[in-house]
Amino acid sequence: MPHHVKRGDSPVKRGHRFFNFLIFIWNFFLDIFFPWQCLNCKKEISRFYPLCKKCQASIPVSYSFICPVCKKRIINFSKRYCSCKTNVNALGMVSFYENSILKKSLHLFKYQRIIFLQKPLSDLMIKFLKETNFFSGINKENILVIPIPLHKRKRNHRGFNQSELLAKAVASHFSLNYHPEILLRIKNNPPQVKINNFSEREKNVKDIFQISDDSLNIIENKWIILIDDVYTSGATMQEAARVLKKFKVKKIIGLVLAKG
User: Fold this and answer.
1) Cβ partners under 8 Å of residue 131, min gap 6
2) Does the predicted TM-score (pTM) go above 0.90?
3) 183-197: string of b/e by CB count within 10 Å (b at 16+)?
4) Contact criterion met (CB below 8 Å) for 163 and 178
5) Are 77 and 91 in contact (CB under 8 A)?
6) Which of 34, 39, 118, 217 could covalently link to 165 via disulfide, CB atoms 3.0 to 4.6 Å apart?
7) pLDDT digit string (tens) for 136-162?
8) CA dihedral for 141, 143, 145, 146, sign (positive or negative)
9) Is the four-CA dihedral 177, 169, 207, 181 of positive or negative sign?
10) Structural domains of the chain, ranges and CATH numbers in brackets
């Protein structure tokens, strides 16, 4: 072995460490001369959290679930809280779309592909679930987290599903079972945002979902947290819940960042 090479230290490893050192120097240079900025107020911030503390704190968080039909507050999930017929048993709307910071963040996240916004946006959902004491009296092993899926053509075009990113972060934080493969979108229907009439929205999402064949035993008697970014008319989430409820799901809890 040549005397100038340390035992266990190959030229390849030394070259790899030198390359990492160059990346470190380059990032250090960028951080000094081109510091990261808050996406809202442009104030200098630390890496990978694209909203400053002040802007993040300016997004209000609500503290109760509601019935998606009559809007009655739900305090205790073990009791019957209303007589409304709905596939989504309870809806958690974390904040309000009228908030300019949240609205801007959602637009940048969804359409400008600023993936780092996953962290502050999922943090809002996590805060909501903590403040509402949602997990009090519920066995976490009986909870499945499922995102509203995109059609594979739209997902491939966008490169990601924003609802998947949010659902994955929430499930990871609370150590919940995360299953993005259970609910499938089998029709590439036109975007709901282009349709104003509620009955037409219902028609537009009719039969666009199905359950994967190998998931039937997984969802039986489970609580499902169904996650999406924005709740507008509710037609999409209600349709997803309708399909899931065919297979003996115990309860379906909708969780969204805001009502559009």
Assistant:
1) 61, 63
2) no
3) bbbeeebeebeebee
4) no
5) no
6) 118
7) 889 999 999 999 999 999 988 888 999
8) positive
9) negative
10) 50-259 (3.40.50)
